[in-house]
Specification:
Layout lengths: L3 E7 L4 E7 L5 E5 L5 H11 L2 E6 L5 H4 L2 H11 L7 E2 L6 H4 L2 H7 L19 E4 L2 E7 L8 E5 L4 E3 L4 E2 L2 E2 L9 H12 L7 E3 L6 E2 H7 L7
Length: about 220
């Protein structure tokens, strides 16, 4: 089964919130709803998708700040259906518990702390409309960053691990540049050059293209 991907840039950070769904069953999930929840809800309504879960790659406010509000709104819009928040890894709990405070420091409103229904670990699997996605723990940008990989369709959601032409920031107190490079070398590049991926900011790419041209990956 091939899933449909709709990217919804949200917040002043232009973070790629992803609405991934099966066009036939119209079941799906939202990944990284950082904010601008009305915009996300409008996209869901336009596509007529039933959202079954909200997935988070990591705990930064631009990726998770709208998750709690979106879960409440979907529970109202989809009576009788609970929409769980799943991910990231538990190492990002400290970030999720401080989103509102961080948002206030940036002058951003309507961002809330998040208490996931389930944290993820390496080797877990999540399903989007019945399609399995492997969970890989890729720390460095944040301690609990995870990525989602659809091996069958050669597709991945990499959050802020790898971008077109760049990699995630590691200049936070909890960031680790070498740890991020190790995660990319040992977990992302081995997925294969043909794997197409979407990332947390900017355009999509393929792993092979980044292996060849991304300056941060040369020598890995």
């Amino acid at each position: 089964m091939t899933l449909s991907v709709t990217l919804i840039p949200v917040t002043a950070f232009q973070q790629n919130c992803a609405l991934i769904s099966d066009p036939e069953s119209r079941r799906g999930a939202v990944i990284d709803p950082g904010g601008d929840v009305p915009r996300i809800l409008a996209a869901i309504e336009k596509l007529g998708v039933t959202i079954e879960q909200i997935l988070l790659t990591h705990g930064h406010l631009d990726h998770a700040g709208g998750a709690s509000a979106l879960a409440r709104a979907l529970a109202t819009a989809q009576p009788g259906r609970t929409v769980p928040i799943v991910g990231p890894a538990a190492q990002d709990r400290f970030l999720l518990e401080n989103i509102a405070r961080q948002a206030a420091a940036f002058g951003l409103a309507d961002m809330e702390d998040v208490a996931p229904d389930r944290f993820l670990t390496e080797g877990d699997e999540v399903e989007i409309a019945g399609v399995p996605f492997a969970v890989l723990h890729c720390p460095g940008h944040t301690p609990g960053h995870v990525v989602f990989v659809d091996h069958a369709n050669r597709f991945a959601v990499l959050g802020d691990v790898l971008f077109q032409g760049s990699i995630g920031r590691t200049d936070f107190p909890y960031g680790d540049h070498q740890q991020l490079l190790t995660a990319i070398a040992e977990k992302i590049l081995p997925l294969g050059d043909d794997v197409h991926f979407i990332c947390g900011h900017g355009p999509a790419s393929r792993i092979g293209a980044e292996r060849r041209s991304n300056p941060f990956l040369q020598g890995l």
